[in-house]
User: What shape does this take?
Amino acid sequence: MLPVNMVINIIIFAFFSIIFIYVSWPYLRKFSSRGFYRFFVFESILILILINSKYWFENPFSLFQILSWILLSVSVILVITAVYNLHKKGAPVKGIETTTKLVDRAVYKYIRHPMYASLFYLCWGSFLKNISILGAMLTFGVTILLGLIAKIEEKENIEKFGDSYLDYMKKSKRLLPFVY
Assistant: This one.
């Protein structure tokens, strides 16, 4: 018989995986789309959160826990400000992926992909809860995929916004402010 916490994790994984599949379904056959790779980012982060779930509140004042909570807090702030600014300034047609105006204010002034950066911080914050080989493999995989997704989206944005996006790229970083 499986331990109760493992059964709960399997149920949580199945529930969210169904949601991820539903949201990603149009992209799962398009290997060149960002949605294809984003599905694997979501799944990997979910696995990382679940395998580290029992460590989230263990040793709350250890260095790794403090760093983890800082990264997780930055993740939440980034996604909230990014979604807000896309809705407010991006003039979306259907959803935030269909913006009609280039957003280069607020958090977008510093990084071009704050929602992917949010996933980056979520992943690394979750990893620091309990460092393991499996966690490291998932975290490095997610990091590589997020860079790839950002590059794919940048090609799309250059086609969509032209020279204004190329100018914007010169003034901002891809995922990490002042770094990358």
